[in-house]
User: What shape does this take?
Amino acid sequence: MESISISYQKCEDLLLDRNETYYLDDIDRKLILALVKFLSLFKTASEQLSADTTPTLHLVVPWFTKLKNSCEQKVDDPLLLIQFKIAVSKMLDEKIYLTSLHYIATFLYPVTKKLSTLNNKLRNEIYADTRKIIKTLGIQQENRSTMSTKTIDVVNNSRKKKKNDFFMGDDVMQEFAGEIDEDCDDNLDEIDRYINTKLSFSKDDTLLGWWNKHSLIFPQLSLLAKSIFAIPASSATSERIFSSAGRILEKRRQSLKPGVVDDILMIRNFREI
Assistant: This one.
């Protein structure tokens, strides 16, 4: 469809020279352009949510929200596009089931930690679920044993660093973040301190790198982030690995040991990291 949109004008000129424009009579160019614009958002979402080498779980809630909003009808939408949006919106509700892990992952992304676009009830539920999962996973006990050998001098040094509020333009995470009101209160628990402390997340930061850098300030949340972000948003990565395994185990390679296959897959999938 995108290729038709791109080449439409050239095809029209060519057919006009040959007096064969009737081939285009059944093609509604306005509808094609509207569909391409609508579906391009889904293409971007699919690419980001199926990434191999970066965390993806935190993207699910913002992208679901953005895609649902894109299905809202506009006054100038063609009738077929309106019908298509209704069908897509229904499909999103049927195919995507948001769990507390999705919301917690979004909360653990520094830019969207305020969850400003959510209502107060849901926001407080997410904060409560975060506290519960920390207890469930035993992170509190693990943190106590780990912190006994560390100091927290980095906390004060981190607060003195120059602030950098640069966020990528048109990024879906920034859009989902909404308005951010940063107030700090040191007499709060770790989750509340994370919510209220002013900490930058620049274009040069990686999500796991950021949490590693702030692991002394937020030790429990840092451990939780490493666990949560190990969960992929989709099965695309495992499916690609399965497909790669099928290409490796050809007729002439049936005698390969499982360990050798694992090594080959590891090298193939992580050589660019």
